[in-house]
Amino acid sequence: MSGPYLHGHHASVLRSHSWRTVDNSAPHLIPYLKPDLKVLDVGCGPGTITVDLASRLPQGFVYAIDPSADVIEKARQHAQEKRVTNVRFEVGDIHNWQGLDGVKEGSFDVVHAHQVLQHLQDPLGCMKEMVRLTKKGGIVAVRDCDYGAMDWYPEHPGMQKWKDLYIKVAKGLKAYPNMGKMLHSIALQAGLPRQDIEASIGSWCFSTPEERAWVSSSHDQLTTSTDSDSVVRSLGGPNGEERLQTKGAGRQPRD
Ligand SMILES: C[S@@+](CC[C@H](N)C(=O)[O-])C[C@H]1O[C@@H](n2cnc3c(N)ncnc32)[C@H](O)[C@@H]1O
């Protein structure tokens, strides 16, 4: 993997990611889905969006990659449980896909990434590879959140502190926690013509007591995620931020 992945793959993170479906996380793709499409899902995580996509493409196929072998295993299990067979999960990095069997330049109708670019130190490089892997006339579909835009009521000092800390840590790792609003610009820089770029906005809303409890339980990532433990500790002391810059940038990811 090209840089540290802040969230890591702790159970609390996977609980949150496994809730995701095409309806709640990739509705922008639905109008473009055709039964025989060949799709690449970049940074598929536990694969719930991937498997949902595959189940909507009865004559098509979804190839999914993620650098974490553990999470790829979980994604394979999920596909088996759902009895979806037109999907293939492989350990792989978007910056280094050349060795992957079956992945070729210009070979996918759709190349999709959900909540991935924000975690990368080189999101433009990722976008360029995604464009390269897409067939002429195909679709590159990316969706990312914007931590700066997350909001709630009533105001809550603890939640505000969590958000500020998350953004600080992510930026310290040279990632882009506010990527959502930057995506059109990254697409332009990758060479896509302005008239071909379609921007849209979506939201997740957690309102009922059950939804709030669930989303809160998945946001202890900064203290439970294996990748972020040392980062959080490094913020604690004097000059913590300076130590974060050096430590985060050089640290090897565990997954
Ligand atoms: C926030 S998760 C999103 C997972 C999934 N797309 C979803 O929305 O449920 C980001 C994923 O990107 C993966 N990732 C990080 N760097 C990557 C890279 N260079 N190439 C491909 N995937 C990467 C991580 O391992 C992680 O599983």
**Overall 3D shape:** globular
Mean pLDDT reading:
87
Total helical elements: 11
Instruction: Give the fraction of residues assigned to helices.
Output: 25-40%
By CATH reckoning, the class would read: Alpha Beta
SSE string: HHEHEHEEHEHHHHHH
Order of strands across the main sheet? 3-2-1-4-5
Described by strand count, sense and barrel closure, the largest sheet is: 5 strands, parallel
> What is the C-alpha radius of gyration, as a whole number of Å?
18 Å
Instruction: Please provide the count of β strands.
Output: 5
- The CATH architecture can be named as 3-Layer(aba) Sandwich
Query: What is the terminal-to-terminal distance?
Result: 8 Å
Low-confidence stretches: 237-255
Strand content: 5-15%
CATH superfamily: Vaccinia Virus protein VP39
Indicate the CATH topology.
Rossmann fold
Structural class: alpha/beta
**Which ligands are bound?**
S-adenosylmethionine
Number of separate structural domains:
1
